[in-house]
Design brief:
heterodimer, A: alpha/beta, Glutaredoxin, Rossmann fold, eight-stranded mixed β-sheet, 21 helices, B: alpha/beta, Alpha-Beta Plaits, 2 domains, four-stranded antiparallel β-sheet
């Protein structure tokens, strides 16, 4: 069988490569592909400053903005091209009578079709591989921005997509003696496949979803984004198999007689394929091969979600035509796949008013998460993994977790929206389900029972002795406190914190290296993090502004563990020139911008059951309105709060997923690429075609 | 070559194309070393029969065994046994002759010494000087030779040739006939033709097929007689009945159709002149004399009838 397939395969390839047609197709395709590639790239580079700086750049990098779009656009080309590539395969044999030679030779019909199919597939894989190679050309200049595994899956997906179209192109070709008719039938097939998607927009709910899942592009999307999903594999393979089977039924002599007798077989094949695909819809394997794991939930999200005990329902109010539809569906599916306790559905409020009313919502672009056990629900407007997991955390929390910000000593204002204020922080914490309030001790007289965390945010004057003893008592009985201490004139808490083993320096750090990033020397870029669970996995720098140094005394009791979280850049300079001149001598003390201390008070079977935690930061600005959204500040801050309040679940978004961009590509390099991909490559194929043509003619 | 062993045994073969009854119970056999001709007008069912024998078309009912293999159960075995040249040779015009034959050799199951096999068949079919030409550039005669080379390349025991000489010029026809005669020494052959002399020169036996039926079959001797050709002479004459009685003879048959005296037999110019002068001499008035060559079936039927009469 294999030998027979190879004989047919080689003959088909020879047929292709001795005719000028295939070279012309190559030249045209490469010209268009080259142009798409170049214009996409040039457009991207021209807008790079805007893209990388703005909101779009947060999650979308070079791959999302250029490569994905490129591969999706190429499919439109394939839909037009593949009928031309397939049209002669059987039609010409039918016309010249060579089909009679093949079918009276000792080779099976299966081998004939397989050989031909593989030959077209090889041609098509060249057509896919060359443009994919263009992206690899960028690798030396783009580094991490070019995601090779993702390129590979995108190419593989395009190939599977094409294989499905090829098998139907061959079917079209086998139905007729005329190449033109074959091409027209193949176009008709392709447009039918395409129209399934448009048609699905006319149906709502499950029917629409089902139809949308029948469409080709729906299954190509994941591949292009670096996701290999068995369902998409199965879809393309079964489509290709179906085309193959129909070609088997229709090829050979006696076609017209067999059309009716094979009708039953054909219909049962379609039904069988539908059944298999439906059966494996819920049982599947999904691997995210994209380098950044953009479509993989973080470990913490997965742990938390799979441990959910309540029943959650998510209703996404998006049209299927929405630009975010696919991304949101991917995301919701990731959650739903983790546990049977989370279900999701898409609702079009205009067309499914009853379902929409069930969630009490009539507007678009909203996601509602409802805890069916408690009846509480949350409304999300921007749908990301982070928002979703926060909403789930919040909805599944039984008791209210309080974070108190101490007030009365000139602390930062939770409701202030100026650059120094903490309004944004307070909002983010509320989104996470914390109750965030100010606490004026002289008024309450004590620290409330259910305090999850006490924050001392940039006090300008010392606490009253009574107040401090309350804080101390609270801490020693298993409390949690966060000290945000700005340089002078803010109060340093140096005396108070020394009792706990924390050292707060009075000096101010400055970093001349900051000017490289356009910042003032007082702005400190933190790109070195300590080894602590709250900062592990953070790979994006944070920004501190005008900070003190803090550290921990050595030789602390064994039940105390200290960790520095944020370390200043190597070029940072302290305002104190000689550390040994200070009292105490801190020349041997490791210093940083922020650190945490954990003291285990009680243990049971080796596991801590009671501890107190203190976090100290030499800067109170990193979580202010102005800086909270900068770079890695948000995850750093949220993780810190979570760790302190012992949530056990940290901020989901690993900002390593931030979009990666091409850093430097000179105008000359871009021009070189233009000549290479738009001019040289297509011309090369065109000239080869002419050469082969002339040489065969002599 | 020893003859006698039965190569093909076909019994009651029926073929329907949708509603069209193309073959109506055809039965025949082919012995080893025999050249069997299918004779008949276009659309008679010759090609259909051949396509069924080569497994290209399925049969509707009936039974065929080739070399003891059942056609329906063992199509692959049968394909290996058969070399088939369809009416238009199945060629890839964009290939060179060597490339084409290389492909055919491989598809016919030859995997060793393919180059040698191709060279041998090129020599045998006299394609040496054209072997590097593109098939598209070959003349009709050469294409037919490539077609034959294609059918012969795996040295099959049975050759099936569909109208091997159609569309060729007289010189080429003679060449191909000689070649087929030569092949007859080593292969059993079925060929189809609508040219009577060709059948008589080449075939040991002929089946005449018309409207999906074998209407007659004949040996080489019968064909030789047939090949001399039958003639029908129509004489418009004042008293046809009397005239018919006056010239009655064993060498031809006479009848009256629509008041015209019709004579079937072998006459030639002299024979016709003799009959005319006999009639004129007997005092009949002849208004016109027409002579026409009989078509195949009529001739064959006539011949058979004559044979029965004798």
């Amino acid at each position: 069988m294999f030998r027979e397939i190879m004989v047919i395969f080689r003959k088909e390839l020879r047929s292709y490569f001795v005719s000028p047609l295939v070279y012309t197709i190559f030249a045209v395709i490469l010209f268009i592909a080259g142009f798409l590639f170049y214009s996409g790239l040039a457009n991207y580079l021209a807008n790079l400053p805007v893209i990388a700086g703005g909101q779009i750049g947060e999650r979308s990098g070079f791959m999302e903005l250029v490569a994905n779009a490129f591969f999706l656009r190429m499919t439109a080309l394939f839909i037009l091209l593949l009928p031309l590539l397939c049209m002669r395969v059987f039609a010409e044999e039918n016309r010249t009578g060579t089909m009679e030679l093949l079918l009276t030779s000792p080779v099976s019909k299966t081998a004939i079709i397989a050989g031909k199919f593989l030959a077209v597939c090889l041609i098509q894989s060249i057509i896919i591989a060359i443009p994919a190679g263009y992206f690899l050309l960028l690798k030396p200049y783009a580094g991490q921005a070019v995601d090779v595994p993702q390129l590979f899956t995108a190419a593989a997906g395009s190939f599977l997509f094409s294989a499905a179209l090829i098998s139907f192109g061959l079917l079209a070709s086998s139905l007729t003696k005329s190449q033109l008719v074959a091409a027209l039938i193949a176009f008709a097939f392709n447009f039918t496949f395409l129209s399934v998607q448009s048609l699905s927009y006319y149906f709502v709910g499950k029917t629409g979803e089902f139809m949308a899942r029948l469409s080709l592009v729906d299954h190509l999307q994941p591949f292009v984004q670096g996701i290999v999903d068995t369902r998409d594999l199965l879809y393309f393979l079964s489509l290709a198999g179906l085309g193959f089977f129909f070609t088997y039924l229709s090829s050979g002599a006696d076609r017209k007689e067999r059309i009716f007798s094979s009708l039953g077989l054909g219909i049962s094949a379609v039904l069988a394929v539908l059944l298999i695909n439906t059966a494996f819809h819920k049982t599947y394997l999904r691997v995210d091969l994209s380098g950044r794991g953009l479509y993989t939930l973080s470990e913490r999200t997965r742990d938390f979600t799979s441990g959910l005990s309540n029943n959650f329902e998510m209703a996404a109010f998006f049209r299927r035509t929405d630009e975010n539809y696919f991304r949101i569906r991917e995301l919701l599916e990731c959650f739903a796949a983790l546990t049977p306790n989370v279900k999701y559905q898409f609702i079009d409020p205009d067309r499914q008013p009853q379902e929409a009313a069930g969630f009490g919502n009539t507007s678009y672009k909203v996601l509602i998460i409802r805890n069916n056990t408690t009846g509480k629900s949350e409304k999300l407007f921007s749908i990301t993994e982070e928002r979703l997991i926060n909403a789930l955390v919040k909805l599944s929390r039984k008791e209210i977790r309080n974070i108190f910000f101490l007030s009365g000593h000139g602390e930062r204002d939770l409701s202030a929206r100026d650059s120094r204020g903490y309004y944004e922080l307070q909002k983010k914490l509320s989104e996470r389900g914390f109750q965030v309030r100010e606490l004026f001790l002289p008024e309450t007289g004590s620290i409330p029972e259910n305090t999850a965390l006490l924050v001392l945010a940039d006090a300008q004057s010392p606490l009253l002795p009574d107040e401090w003893s309350m804080v101390k008592k609270y801490l020693l009985s298993g409390g949690r406190a966060l000290f945000l201490i700005d340089p002078s004139p803010s109060y340093s808490f140096a005396e108070e914190l020394r009792e706990f083993g924390v050292f707060v320096r009075s000096s101010v750090l400055s970093d001349s290296g900051s000017s490289l990033f356009g910042g003032e020397p007082s702005v400190l870029m933190v790109n070195r993090y300590g080894n602590h669970e709250s900062v592990n996995g953070l790979s994006v720098s944070s920004v501190f502004s005008g900070a003190r140094e803090i550290g921990f005394y050595l030789m602390l009791p064994k039940n105390i563990r200290t960790d520095l979280l944020a370390l200043p850049g190597k070029s940072a300079v302290s305002s104190v020139q000689d550390p040994s001149s200070e009292t105490p001598d801190v020349s041997r003390l490791p210093l940083g911008l922020a650190g945490v201390l954990r003291c285990i008070l009680e243990e049971k079977e080796g596991k801590p059951v009671l501890d107190y935690r203190i976090a100290v930061s030499g800067d109170a600005d990193f979580c202010s309105n102005h800086f909270l959204d900068h770079y890695g500040n948000l995850p750093f801050t949220m993780n810190l709060f979570s760790w302190l309040a012992d949530e056990g679940d940290y901020l989901a978004t690993d900002l390593a997923k931030k979009g990666r961009h091409i850093q430097n590509l000179s105008t000359n390099q871009l021009r070189f690429l233009f000549y290479l991909v738009v001019i040289t490559a297509p011309l090369l194929f065109f000239l080869t075609g002419i050469f082969v043509y002339l040489r065969r003619r002599n | 070559m020893r003859r006698g062993k039965i190569v093909i045994l076909a019994r009651n073969v029926d073929k329907y194309y949708s509603n069209f009854h193309a073959l109506k119970g055809i039965s025949f056999e082919l012995k080893k070393g025999e050249i069997l001709g299918f004779l008949g007008p276009n659309g008679a069912g010759k090609t259909t029969t051949m396509r069924i024998l080569t497994t290209f078309l399925p049969l509707t009912s009936g039974e065929i065994t080739i070399n003891g293999y059942d056609l329906i159960k063992k199509p692959m075995e049968i394909r290996k046994l058969i070399g088939y040249l369809p009416e238009t040779p199945p060629l890839y015009p964009e290939f060179r002759v060597t490339e084409y034959l290389d492909f055919v050799a491989r598809i016919k199951g030859i995997s060793r010494n393919v180059d040698k096999t191709v060279d041998r068949i090129i020599d045998r079919c006299g394609l040496g000087e054209k072997k590097h030409s593109l098939i598209a550039h070959l003349s009709k005669g050469y294409r037919q030779r490539v077609g034959l080379a294609q059918a012969l390349i795996h040295n099959p025991g049975l050759l099936i040739l569909d109208e091997p000489t159609s569309g060729l010029d007289p010189q080429q026809i003679l060449e191909i006939r000689d070649f087929i005669r030569e092949l007859g020494c080593e292969h059993s052959i079925i060929l189809s033709t609508h040219i009577l002399p060709e059948a008589s020169q080449l075939c040991h036996r002929v089946l005449i097929i018309d409207h999906g039926r074998i209407i007659a079959s004949g040996s080489q001797q019968e064909l030789n007689a047939l090949a001399r050709g039958g003639e029908r002479v129509k004489i418009r004459i004042n008293e046809p009945l009397a005239a018919m009685n006056s010239i009655r003879s064993d060498s031809f048959s006479a009848s009256i159709e629509d008041g015209v005296l019709v004579l079937d037999g072998e006459f030639g110019d002299e024979g016709r002149a003799g009959i005319v002068s006999t009639l004129v001499g007997a005092g009949f008035r002849i208004y016109s004399v027409e002579s026409e060559q009989l078509n195949l079936e009529q001739v064959f039927i006539t011949l058979l009838r004559n044979a029965k009469n004798v």
